[in-house]
């Protein structure tokens, strides 16, 4: 996403502004959701649900104003696919993941799918890797056991943000 911003700046100022606003919005809600999830193990609908249209409009504007309407497909499909993947994980093992994580996955999928399909995969992998490392560290410190619940939202957000900072493959 950083390289995309650099590419858009000189030639497409409206697209640059929309993508910058979308990134700033993700940072703000990501920080807020992470804080709430760490404290309460919940991802409130009042924050997650409005993120769908806000991200959709900002990323859609960036795609259209940047002359790349094909990115609309990427953001819509990315959001749907990541939501479906997390829903399947929740369906298979409901005790392992909350439905708030499923809803958040759709929002993160919009961002990752907008930039690049491979980032959708890397962002998902990074979330599970970071969450797993945290769980192992907590068990090593004897602060958690195999059945302990950990808030997964912060790791989903961190994985997406780290991945969005990477250069796209295409």
From TrEMBL:
Residue intervals of the Prepilin type IV endopeptidase peptidase domain: 26-136
Transmembrane segments: 12-35, 47-66, 72-93, 114-137, 149-168
Keywords: Membrane, Transmembrane, Transmembrane helix
Keyword Transmembrane helix: yes
Domain of life: Bacteria
Record bears the keyword Transmembrane: yes
Species of the source: Arthrobacter mangrovi
Protein name stated in the entry: Prepilin type IV endopeptidase peptidase domain-containing protein
Family, per entry: Belongs to the peptidase A24 family.
Database matches in Pfam families: Peptidase_A24
């Amino acid at each position: 996403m950083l390289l995309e911003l650099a590419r858009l700046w000189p030639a497409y100022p409206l697209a640059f502004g929309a993508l910058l606003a979308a990134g700033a919005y993700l940072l703000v809600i990501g920080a807020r959701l992470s804080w709430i999830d760490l404290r309460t193990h919940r991802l409130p609908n009042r924050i997650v649900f409005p993120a769908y249209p806000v991200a959709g409009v900002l990323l859609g504007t960036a795609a259209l104003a940047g002359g790349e309407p094909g990115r609309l497909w990427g953001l819509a499909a990315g959001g749907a696919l990541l939501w479906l993947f997390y829903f399947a994980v929740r369906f298979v093992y409901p005790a392992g993941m909350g439905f708030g994580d499923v809803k958040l996955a759709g929002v993160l999928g919009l961002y990752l799918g907008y930039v690049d399909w491979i980032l959708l995969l890397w962002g998902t992998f990074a979330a599970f890797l970071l969450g797993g490392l945290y769980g192992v560290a907590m068990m090593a410190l004897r602060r958690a056991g195999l059945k302990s619940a950990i808030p997964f939202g912060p790791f989903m957000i961190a994985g997406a943000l780290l991945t969005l900072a990477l250069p796209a493959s295409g």
